[in-house]
Amino acid sequence: MLVSLTRRRNDMLELENSLFESYLRRAAERNPGAFTGDDDVQSAAAARKQGVMKKATLEWHQKNEVGVHEMDDIREDIEKLRAEHEALIDALRAQMEETDIRISEIKKDAYEFKRDVVIGAENARTGKTVAEKVVRHMDEKIRAKGSMIEKLRLKNAQLKAQVAKLESQLQQKEDMGEVLHAIDFDQLKIENQQYLEKIEDRNNELLRLKLTTGNTIQVLNEIKHKLGVLNEESVFLKSETAHRREALAKINEEIKRVEAERERALRAERKAKREVPMHETSKMPQVLEYVQQKSEEFELQKQIAAITKKIDLAQMALKTEMRRSRQTGSF
């Protein structure tokens, strides 16, 4: 029983000592010149060596005053920590919201790019991406970024105006001699810092959008240049295809005409053979007539070879033009 009572008293004394030490430490921080900790420690050590220790106790009202001061200081520390933590939570919440918005914008941009360019701009026949749709998509994105830049600029101006208004109100209150509570002043400082951070973030975002817009415009100019070159090449190929088709049509007409002449010659030859009497078939032709017929036969064979060569060339040209027409169809 006596041991437990002594332990409780010792625990109470330890709590009182820790509370008093905290009070002395805070008081020393507020007024360092009023306390000489080294002298007190040396005098206490000397007295301990001499075996003389004065029993120093505090009255109840003194203990109460120390406790009240400590409670007020702890409450003030708690309020400061709460304000700092709330400011940190607000900043983190704002960053999370901004991150979520940015993620949703990126997902939206990716979906629109896939819909308008990857799938929508693909030529169904050739499987290639149509340059006009890509340029149109880039133009729309640039206009959207421009409008976003203008909105951010207006919002930035509004935030600056709010900051200027708050600073003006604070200056007016200081000029009028109004005393702000420490917590209110800290809260205003925290809000001011938050606004400044938001302004800095908006300025960085605006700079980033300007750089992105510049890069996009540069890429767009390169694409337009390539598109112009491809258009010129397409016009040239279309003109060349038209000329080749005209030449091919002329060759086909020439082939038809030669085939008709050949058919007429064959019919005439068959008709002449039918008209020759049977008794004259055994007669030998005259030498000059035979030579003339051989010469005509040789000339006809040369003409047939030339026509056959023209037909082969025309067929090769037709295949080449059809292949080029299929290739230039994507333009």
Report the helical percentage: over 70%
Strand content: under 5%
| Discrete helix count | 6
Give me the secondary-structure category. mainly alpha
The ordered H/E elements are HHHHHH
Radius of gyration: 52 Å
Shape: rod-shaped
Q: Provide the residue-averaged pLDDT.
A: 77
Q: Could you give a short account of the major beta sheet? A: none
End-to-end Cα distance, whole Å, is 105 Å
Question: How many beta-strand elements?
Answer: 0
Q: What are the low-pLDDT stretches, counting only 5+ consecutive residues below 50? A: 44-54
Question: What key phrases describe this protein's structure?
Answer:
mainly alpha; 6 helices; 331 residues; 0% strand
Explain what this protein looks like in three dimensions.
The termini are far apart. With 331 residues, this protein is mainly alpha-helical. It is built from six helices and no strands. The model is unreliable at 44-54 (pLDDT under 50).
Task: Summarize this structure briefly.
With 331 residues, the chain is mainly α. 86% of the residues lie in helices and 0% in strands. Mean pLDDT is 77; it is low at 44-54.
